[in-house]
Amino acid sequence: MSDGHGPPPETPSGWSAEQPPPYSAPPASPWTAPGAQQQPQPTPYGQPYGEPLQQPQPLGPGPQTPYPPHPHPQPGYGYAPPPPALRPGIIPLRPLGLGDILDGTIKLIRSNPKAVLGLSAVAALLASVPVAVGQAFVLDTMGGVLDDPESAYTSSNDGLTSVYGVAAQYGGTLVSYMVQFVVVTLLTGVLTRILGRAVFGGSITAREAWQLVKGRVPALFGVVAMMAVIMLVPLVVMVLLIVVVAMNVSSGGAGVILGLAFLFMIVYLGYYLFFTTRFAFASPIVVLEGRGAIESMRRSWHLVTGDFWRVFGILLLTSLLVGLVAGVLSVPFTLAGTLFGMFGAGSVATTVVSVVLIALGGTLGSMLTYPFQAGVAGLLYADRRMRSEAFDLVLQTAAIEQQRQGWVHASADELWHPSNSARP
């Protein structure tokens, strides 16, 4: 063998034993296993010299790469991110985050503003007018006191005026709550049905939604009635207990009564938040799954189990955001109506303007509060089913079929039935 400096030995054919013939690859030994280590080959003619190889390169079948592969594959080289989730409607068909829920609720309002905002405005107006009338009557009385402060002493002796004032102030609020009990319950059902179709990118009119919801009205009222009982019973017990304690303590026990009332209010706040979170999905379940009132509340309790704090946090954050926006919209009108009512007392026109302004402020605030809270509750319900029942697979399969057909069929409403869940 040559040391690389002298001329290589010639073969009988005239070619060097270490130099391959022109236009051909060096012959590989038939006894060399693929990947076996051999001596490094000299650098081909015309190729620049690089750094010397630290280890001999294995010869395998096929051409060899000039650089050894990196021991760890880097992102970007052969890495493919997962495809985005299918999104035929207002939400992606996968478990939802907070941003998806809020964005989907806004898209629900924007996708069908006539049905959503129109119905919400009617419901808000019906609930705001009784309160506005009662407040305007009270403000008219207060305005008379501001004009003649001495009339406060004479009017205080007039029992009939006091009864009218109390009846106007609290009667309007009571009537407003009764109207909300009826109107908001129906509105929640209609909005939930619109949401159920908007998830697939379909739209539905208010009339069509009402035709689908009217059969579920008794169950909806059953849910609201049971929620009212759950919330009112401990409140009544608390008030009766405070009255009993007040009757049995001496005149110097006012501090004890106030402390007991404060403690009860703290406990009741936790009680209220706990049960409203547990039964937050009862109304969507009544409408979308077709269950009865008690069964819907039981299923809502089951869906919230395991993710209580997340559901509670999203609902609480939604209430704060909606309350802030509603306050910004309603406060200017309410303040203007209050000033008109107080400083323009005795004038029918001023009273009417005060009622209109207060009612307008309440309507603007509530017409956004109602659909936003209903939308968040409905999308949270869908999210919990995706996470606990793999419901996103059902929705994706249906959405692919609907895309193939080119339209959203009314049978999409039946997909919400729990029998269609991938993991019941």
Automatic annotation (TrEMBL):
UniProt source species: Nonomuraea jabiensis
Source species, domain of life: Bacteria
The name this protein goes by in its record: DUF7847 domain-containing protein
Low complexity composition bias: residue spans: 30-57
Chain intervals for the UniProt region annotation (Disordered): 1-84
Transmembrane annotation, as ranges: 116-138, 174-196, 217-247, 253-274, 308-333, 339-360
Coiled-coil region list: none
Record keywords, A-Z: Membrane, Transmembrane, Transmembrane helix
Biased composition (Pro residues): 1-11, 19-29, 58-84
Start and end residues of each DUF7847 domain: 99-377
PANTHER family tied to this protein: EXPRESSED PROTEIN-RELATED, OS08G0107100 PROTEIN-RELATED
